User: What shape does this take?
Amino acid sequence: MSNTKVIDDGIELLPPNDRSASRMLVPSQPELRFPEIVPAAAGKPRRPLWLALALVAVAGAAIGGYWWLHAAPGLPAGIAFGNGRVEADEIDIAAKFSGRIAALLVDEGDVVRAGQVVARMDTQDLEMSLRKAQAQVLGANRMLDEAQAGVEQQKAQAKLAEQQLTRAIVLVDKGYATAEILDQRQQQMSAANAALAAANARVGQAEQTLAAANHDADLYRIDIADNSLVAPRDGRVQYRLANIGEVIGAGGKVFTMIDTGYVYMDIFLPTAEAGRTTVGSAARIVLDAAPDTPIPAKVVFVSGEAQFTPKAVETKAERDKLMFRIRVRVDPDYLRVHTAEMSSGLPGLAYVHLNGGAEWPTSLALGRTDEPSR
Assistant: This one.
C-alpha cells in the first residue's frame, strides 16, 4: 500500500503499515481559507461606500453649522455681544368700577395713542346720580340766595335799631324821653345785631351745602369719565380679554397692550465684559429678521448681582457659570419712526460698546436718520 496521506475533513489518515505512526488517526492543522472576493458587476454602484460617504457629509455639515451658529462674529476689541429677545412692557387696561361693557373701540393689533379711548362702560346709573347731584346744587344755590337776602334784611333792622337808639339817647339827655325808652332801644339794637349774626351764619351754612353738592356732582363726572377706558401710553393692543355686553368686576381687564415707547433687550455678559459696561454706553441691536439693519440703542441697566445663565440664553463663553444681566433700550427717537417694525418677542443680538472700546465696525454703523438722540 502506498504511503500517501489522505486528508479528510481535517483528519490525517495514515496507512496501517506505517510504523512511524503511533496511532492511526492524527488530527491535522486546518487550512486557512480566505473569503473569495467577487468583483462587483459593471454598472452597479457600491451602496455601502456611497452610504458611508453621505453620512460623513451630513455629519460634517452639522458640525460646521453648529460651529457657525456658536462662533463669535468678527468684532474689534471693546465690543461685547449677547443674544436675547426684544421685549416691551405689558400694560393692562382695566375697569375702575364693576359694570357692563358698552363699547369696544379697538381690537387686537391696533396701534393706540396715549389718552385714546379704547372702550366705554355702561354709565346709566352714574348719569342718574349726577342729575340728582346737579339738582342738589340748584337747591343749595337757592338756599344761599335766601340766606344772603336774610342778611340784607337783618342789616336793615340793625341800622334802624341803631338810629332809634341814637334818637333815644338825645331825647333822654333833653328830658323828653325816659330811661325806660332808652333801655328798650338798646335791647332792640342788641337783638338786631344778633339776628344779623345768625343770618351771616346761615349764609355760611348754605355755602358749605352748595360746595358739598358741587363736589358730589364733580365726583360723579369723574366716575363717568373713568368709565371711558383710555390707553395710558403709546403702544399696540396685544390681547382683547372681554367682549361687549359682558359684566366685569372692579379691576376687570379689558385689553392688554404693549408699551412701544419702551422697547428693550436683556442680555447676559460674563464678569470681564460686564465690568466694563456702564449705564449710558452706546449699543446696537440686530434682529434675526433684519440682519442688515442695526438698531440704535443704549445701556440703561447693569445688574449689580451675578446670576446663573438661563438655559434659553446662549453666550460665547459657555464655560462661565455666573453672568450679569444687561438691559439695552432702543432709542426713543428711532421708535417714533419705526414703531410698526418693532414686535415683542423677536430674537436677535445686542452689541455693547465697552469702556475704551474701538469704533463700531461698518456692519454696525448707523445712517444719519437712525443716529440716536443726544
